[in-house]
Sequence to fold (116 residues):
Amino acid sequence: MHELAFVEGIVQQVKELKLFHRFNRVREIEIICGPYNSVSADNLEFVLSHLSDQCLNQAKVSVRRVISKYFCSQCALEFDDHDSIEGLCPICHSCRSVVEARRAPYIHKLEVEDEN
Ligand SMILES: [Zn+2]
Fold:
């Protein structure tokens, strides 16, 4: 399963955050999954929800897939994937648009319980 590599990365990040911020465990974690990868949001959520890792155990997990966002370097318009054809700016039709959404899944929100 392709998602395992991403899960390992996310768990590693959570462990580093735990060390740095000294929290006890994660209450809720929200992952954003970019549009251009083969990661299944459902699989990612399943694997993360069934981890036996101490700090993520019993955490509420949600994975959200986002659509592409573009930024036109010609007229500075921000637009969504569905507003354009192949990334062309819907206003000035420039092809010099930049995709803004990140590809790999990343931690968007982390709710934690403090150490007492
Ligand atoms: Zn434009």
